[in-house]
Each structure stands twice: as C-alpha cells, then as structure tokens.
C-alpha cells in the first residue's frame, strides 16, 4: 500500500470556496473562477500516491500550487476538499489531537528559508521535534547529537543559526527533521535558497542519506535539473493541476503535453539517461566455445570489426578485433586468448550517458555495459547516444 | 446650530461614572491591591540605605545596559546628585509609582496583546480603544480616577496605567505577528500545541519587540508623574508641581532634572534587558 495517498485534493483560497468548487467541476479555468468568485484556486483536484522509500518530486514554476500542495499534506493549510491518506488515516478529517500525533510521529518538514529558531542553539533547534514529542532530556540530547553528526555538523551544537552559512543552516533544518525520526520527510524547496555548488553538494548528500535511511520523501522544487537528479518519480504541476507524473526518463521521453515538452526541451539529457536506456543487445563470443572462424563469420554478418568476449555465465572477459582474429586463422591457431584485449571500457547500467561520452569519443569500439557481477548486459554505440542527445526516440536501436 | 439642544453627553458620562462608583466591591479590592503593590516597592527600596541602593542601581545599569563605563559613571553621578539635592525620598516614591504602573501594564497588556495577535476580530475591537486611550488628554483620566479610587498614590497609578499601557499591548501584538510564517510553520509542522507554539516560539521571537513596548510604557508612566501629582501621587512630580505653584524656577528645574536622570536609568535598563544577551 502507498505511504501517502492523495485523493481529489483541492484548495481554494477566498470567501466562497464552495461556488469555486462547483465551477471547477464544470471545468472552468483558474482565471475564469477568479473573475467570477474572487477565489484563487491553489490546488485543483489532484490525485497521486507516494510509495514508501521513494523520493517523490513535485515540480512547478511559482504559482503552480506546489508549495500549497505540500502544506496540504501535513495540513499546515486546511484542504477545501479531498483526502490525504497517510498509513490509512485521512488527515483531512482528523481532529487537532490526531493531527498533532501524525505530525509528531509520521512526518517532518524542511523549509526553503530553513525555518530555524534564531534564539535557540543549533542543538536545541535540532531537538525541537523531540521536545514536542516529550522525550527525556538525555534521550533528546543524544538523538539530536546523532542527527547533527549525520549531516556533518557534529561540533556545532552550541552555536546559533546566524553564525552558520546558508548551507550549514539547511543541514540543521535537515537534521531537525531527521531527528524527529519520522517515516515521511516533506522538503519544501529545501535547497532553492542555496548557492549552485552548495545545492549540488546537498543533493548528493540527500541521495546518500536516502540510500541508508529509506525515508519517504516528498521534495518540492522549481528546478527541473534538481527534480531529475533527485526524483524517483516526478510530478509536474501547472495552475494547481498535475500535468504529468512519471519517472525522469518517462517525462523526458514522453512529455504529456506541450507545456511539459517545452519545459524539458533544454534539459541536458546526457545527465538523465543511463547506459541502460541507450544500450543494445550485444553480439558476443563465448570463450572456449567459439573459435576464430566463428568470430570472423559473426563479425562479417553484423558488419562490425570487433566483438566482446564472455565466458559461459556471460562475465565480461575482453574484446577481440577482426584483423587480429584473421591473423590467428591464417596461422591456423585456435587460441583466442592470445588475441583477447582484457582492458576494455566498461560502465555500469546506471552510469549516466554524460560519463560515457569521453569513452566513446576516442575509441571506435562500443562501450560495454555490465551489471554488478561484471556480466555483460549490453553495449552502447555512438549512434544511439547521438540519437538520444538530439532528442529522438532511442527505442529503435535494437 | 444654536437652535438645536446640545447632546447631554457630559450628563450621561457623569451618570455612568456615578453608577460605576456604586461598584465598591470592585474598586475597594482594586484600590487595596494597587496600594499593596506601591507599598511593596516602597518597602523594597526602603530596606537599603540610600548609598547601598545607589550602588545597586548603578551596578544593575552596568550589568544590563551593556557594561558601558560612561553610562555607569553618569548614573552614579546622577544618583549622587539626586541624593545631594534632597530628592532621594521623592525619587523612591516616583520609582514605586512608575514600577507599579509598569508591572500592572505588563500583567494586563501582554495577555491582551497575545489575544489580539490571535484574532483579527479582537485586534479590530481593541485598536480603536488603544487609540482613544492614547489620544485622550491625560488630565482627563484624573477625574474618574479620583471618583473611583479617591485621592493619593493609587489613582495616580491607575491614570498612569491607562495612559501608558497601549504600547505594551501594541508591541506584543506586533511582535507576535511579525514572526516569520516559516518559523510558525516549522513549529506547527513538528506537532506543537498552541501553547507550545506560543511559549517556545512566538514569545521568544517577539521578546525584543515586546521589551521595546514595555520600555515605552515605563517612559510614558514616568511622564505622568507630574500630572498624577495633582491628585496626590507623591514623589518627584509633586516637587515640580509645587515649584510651578510657587513660581520657583530653580526648585522646579532641580526636580525636573531628577526626573530626567531617573528616566535615563529606567530607559537604559529596560532597553538592556530587551536586547539579546547572548554572545
């Protein structure tokens, strides 16, 4: 079951929300409703679910309703209509007590401007959630210190927020959320206020932490690159509506409409797509089974000048080239190992294309793609990379 | 216009006030409480001999107002001057009145300010009342104060409270409303109750602003001492008031100077307490 299930969630700001909802149901646009009722539609009948352990990115430009949406998830803003199911309970219909319990035990939040308490020390900031949970002083201190350690600010507990740089302050914000030890982390433009370099560093760290902690993260951003980097799945919002939900590759390959297409147009696709997306099935030789004549014949048939060589369980051994193999045939030798070049360029399935470009530039041979056990799963040739970068479908390559 | 009978506004208010004065069961205990507070402060200042009180006040100023040597020397010399001129007893009375008025203003004003910050309706209702309290000439408060509380220190304090309380209320309201939304959201997002939010986040965040309001309140209360002396609130104000009556420029100036010195001390002290003490 999904960790968070959002059903028909709607927020209308203004004095006559019910009329606005009627109009929404009649299919009127945001502007028309504003004109007719004076109400602003913040979030318009959204449905989605967030699976446990995934990073779910909600992306949109300012005014798209993404910040409202995340605040509906922990009810910092009360929804006008719809439900937010967290572990099977509907937040939208909870009393204050139940809501506080959910906020204390199930979800914590990281803010764009950090939201730190300036009059509290770093340690006391991090301990805030624990304090509200009613923990004993000893436990509280221990957990807060652990969380600070986790974000790399071990020695800073006694300082105050304004003595730290922006990046460090946001680490404190993250530590505060982590210390509360909730399954769900809501991150509202958490890195948007940081310098590009620091931002990238924080993204890497978040991914690294996520490897270990397996939280359910809802991450809000207006930055497509950030969304593509972090998201297991991405939701694109416009005018309070969800335009598309999908994996990063999905969204780049199959934009739902012109808006999304325009959005993703300038994305550096080589940073998003992985070897897996552009590789094709390789022609291979199995050592100790296929001799030089088989090799030559196979190369001739495929019109290629080299072949990857594996053993029986497809572990990658190396590559052989046509000229050397034909010499072998002339000499009447069967010893394929004598012409095997073991030092071949190989990448993992999840290596992004950008990192393979250099390998492809200086050598004529395709790049081998292997899995964790060094088994050959595919090869990448220049042509498919170029097709990808030019924005064409890659699937034609087989 | 002359043909139209004037509204008997004055009569109505007289009737209302005399009806209110019936409520002895309210004003009796109130008079007692305020009286106790004033004598409490008087007693507190009375335990110390003047030279010791003088040193304590100098020390407090040094400690709270940022350890400034110049200011400390000024306070020491100023207090010595007051003592030397023979206004020490009057100064103690004035301090008692001002601090009582300040204390009552805080006890009433801060909660009212908090209430205002939580409800736009309350804010809308209280604001005009505050405007009224501050713009009505302070002399006017003397009349009902005497009607309800008689002559003496107590009505002086009451008139001072009415005149001086608005800044505390306003600044408390303002201070709480000025807390950045994200910080409030942070506190709520971790599941704080309303009280936890108020005491752990809003009030600490608003502290500096609230203290600025309290500082204003104390200054306004001090500015009332001469007016309050007209209804028998003793102290430095009385000295000024009498000097005016006797056309005694020198005496009036002396007492006035003493008030200025007290004002500077109270101002720096309350400002110092308001400023963040860390670092």
From TrEMBL, chain A:
EC code: 7.6.2.9
All residue ranges annotated as the CBS domain in the record: 278-336, 340-397
Domain ABC transporter, residue spans: 4-264
Family annotation (InterPro entries): AAA+_ATPase (IPR003593), ABC_osmolyte_uptake_ATP-bind (IPR051921), ABC_transporter-like_ATP-bd (IPR003439), ABC_transporter-like_CS (IPR017871), CBS_dom (IPR000644), CBS_dom_sf (IPR046342), Gly-betaine_transp_ATP-bd (IPR005892), P-loop_NTPase (IPR027417)
Keyword Nucleotide-binding: yes
PROSITE patterns per record: ABC_TRANSPORTER_1, ABC_TRANSPORTER_2, CBS
Subcellular location: Cell inner membrane
Gene3D superfamilies noted in UniProt: CBS-domain, P-loop containing nucleotide triphosphate hydrolases
Key words, A-Z: Amino-acid transport, ATP-binding, CBS domain, Cell inner membrane, Cell membrane, Membrane, Nucleotide-binding, Transport
Pfam families membership: ABC_tran (PF00005), CBS (PF00571)
Top EC class of this enzyme: translocase
Catalytic activity, as annotated: a quaternary ammonium(out) + ATP + H2O = a quaternary ammonium(in) + ADP + phosphate + H(+)
GO biological process: amino acid transport; glycine betaine transport; response to osmotic stress
Coiled-coil stretches noted in the UniProt entry, renumbered to this chain: none
GO CC annotation, single: plasma membrane
GO terms of molecular function: ABC-type quaternary ammonium compound transporting activity; ATP binding; ATP hydrolysis activity
Record membrane topology: Peripheral membrane protein
Subunit comment: The complex is probably composed of two ATP-binding proteins, two transmembrane proteins and a solute-binding protein.
Stated family: Belongs to the ABC transporter superfamily.
Entries under PANTHER family matching the protein: GLYCINE BETAINE/PROLINE BETAINE TRANSPORT SYSTEM ATP-BINDING PROTEIN PROV (PTHR43869), GLYCINE BETAINE_PROLINE BETAINE TRANSPORT SYSTEM ATP-BINDING PROTEIN PROV (PTHR43869:SF1)
Protein name according to UniProt: Quaternary amine transport ATP-binding protein
Species annotation: Marinococcus halophilus
Protein encoded by which gene: gbuA
Automatic annotation (TrEMBL), chain B:
PROSITE patterns: ABC_TM1
GO terms, biological process: amino acid transport; choline transport; glycine betaine transport
Bilayer topology: Multi-pass membrane protein
Annotated ranges, domain ABC transmembrane type-1: 91-270
Principal place of residence: membrane
GO-annotated cellular components: ATP-binding cassette (ABC) transporter complex
Membrane spanning residue stretches: 12-31, 43-63, 69-88, 95-118, 138-164, 217-243, 249-269
InterPro entries attached to this UniProt entry: MetI-like (IPR000515), MetI-like_sf (IPR035906)
Origin: domain of life: Bacteria
Keywords, comma-separated and alphabetical: Amino-acid transport, Cell membrane, Membrane, Transmembrane, Transmembrane helix, Transport
Cellular compartments annotated: Cell membrane
Annotated GO MF terms: amine transmembrane transporter activity; carnitine transmembrane transporter activity
UniProt xrefs under PANTHER family: GLYCINE BETAINE/PROLINE BETAINE TRANSPORT SYSTEM PERMEASE PROTEIN PROW (PTHR47737), GLYCINE BETAINE_PROLINE BETAINE TRANSPORT SYSTEM PERMEASE PROTEIN PROW (PTHR47737:SF1)
Family statement: Belongs to the binding-protein-dependent transport system permease family. CysTW subfamily.
UniProt-recorded name of the protein: Glycine/betaine ABC transporter permease
Protein source organism: Marinococcus halophilus
Taxonomy of the source species: Bacteria, Bacillati, Bacillota, Bacilli, Bacillales
